[in-house]
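Exercise 7.
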Amino acid sequence: MPQKESVRAMFNEISGKYDFLNHFLSFGIDRLWRKRLVKELLKSKPEHVLDLATGTADLAIELHRQSGIRITGVDISEKMLAAGQEKITKSGLADSIELMRGDAENLQFPDQTFDAAMIAFGVRNFEDLPLGISEMKRVLKKGGKVMILEFSHPASFPIKQIYGFYSRFFIPVVGKMISSHPTAYRYLPDTVAAFPSGKAFLNIMLQAGFDQCRMISLSGGIASIYTGTRPD
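Solution. The predicted structure, written as tokens, is:
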């Protein structure tokens, strides 16, 4: 099975437990990370935002709660989108947040459609990372902002050692027990370990044509927010 279809199938299978495991395994810190991304994004005062790998729409809902702006969410997993749509409908946000199935590396939007783009814990799942970053730039208006929240590689003692043990042993065991999926929560630490975080990822953004690229380190380097601007 191609990597993209494998990822889609995996997220379809764990969609029912995804939100609970996200918050449980991060001790709820993932909510604070999303709030920080939203705070940074709103500085540019966007009117229409693209939320890639929207999943169950946590980030889109958080952005709308703080701003009321229009959001379009895209994801390859139909069951994750269904879970997100249920949350949006219950929250009365169906007129402001639109979800659709789509491929982040082949977006079905015209050039310069959105004022900003955001993605939380999704870029490491891209089959072709440079292509996915280039697609974000293509659909952004000139001067548009991109905000990418992703796990990092903490370097300082003892966070590096504690996080390494936690991600390598605790997350796969507990994730398997709760989700009943044999490999999904082994996949998480494996993709984090392989992801080109820090300066390596900023270089990919620069090569895709983004300007003003910078990184905001979160929780001792466990996660980072990467920001960039499409040149005017």
